[in-house]
Amino acid sequence: MISQSPIVSAKWLQENLAQVVVIDCRFALMEPTLGGQQYEAEHIPGAYYLDLDQDLSSAVQKHGGRHPLPDPKKLSAKLSAMGITDSNLVVAYDDSRFAFAARLWWLLRYLGHDRAAVLDGGFQAWKAAGGAVTLDIPPQTSGRFIPSPRPDWVVDIEAVKAKKDSPVVALVDSREPERYRGEREPIDPIAGHIPGAVNYPWQEVTTEQGYLKSDDQLRDRWSDLQSAEEILVYCGSGVSACVNLLSLAAINRDGKLYGGSWSDWCSYQL
Question: Could you list the residue range(s) of the whole structural domain that residue 209 is in?
Fold first, then answer.
């Protein structure tokens, strides 16, 4: 179960900034360089930057989806260069309602680092609370991030096929309802969803301002899956599905990520 709250407030971060490692995860799927440009223009003091394509994913192959999970050793080296050790709380933020910060939050915990959280409300909440911003890029430092991957937190296509029709397994599609229904598919070559999947759009986890909904609202949201013994979560490429996993963690429920997600599923249908 979850030992560390998955979110921190802007006020809390202001008061504890010197004691945590902050990582900027801003990104735009349709404009991949935008997040880095935004970081260079302004960011939370002391914050490092990790790019979804370059740092939080590995190279795209024939199968495995559009954002395959990163190589643990490579990501761990980058995290070590940010000074992260076992004792550090790492706070990730974006400006996309957790879409990219939750990916890092999940990856940290998947690699055995439970002391991870996401900034509630993201970068805009930080600025709205009067938080300082800077252009200064923090130097690399010396940490010791030792990965201890939890392979049972991830499922591949074969596991999805084997489990999806079980009455005690829930397969959750995290994409927008139009994409789930196959009415619109702006990215992947095939529209639709995995047979048997139910739709829990990731945007419903937060308010329109990007704040995590209350525990009661989240419990109510997931109440139809209360009897599920295993929840498998996917999206387009294993990124925004992590927002749903964060919402489950907030109410002390577990879920597993189909890392390749719909883009991996499609690759076997072509």
Answer: 151-267
Where in the sequence numbering do the catalytic residues fall? 235
* Whether 47 and 13 share a structural domain: yes
**Residue 84: what are its φ and ψ, rounded to 5°?**
-80, 130
Same domain, 159 and 254: yes
CATH number, domain of 110, equals 3.40.250.10
How many domains, in total, are found in the chain? 2
Look at strands 154-155 and 20-24 and give their pairing. Answer: unpaired
Number of residues written out for the chain: 270
Q: Give me the helices (H) in the chain, please.
A: 10-16, 34-41, 72-80, 101-110, 122-128, 157-163, 177-180, 215-221, 241-250, 261-267
pLDDT, tens digit (0-9, with 9 covering 90-100), for 202-254:
999 999 999 999 999 999 999 999 999 999 999 999 999 999 999 999 999 99
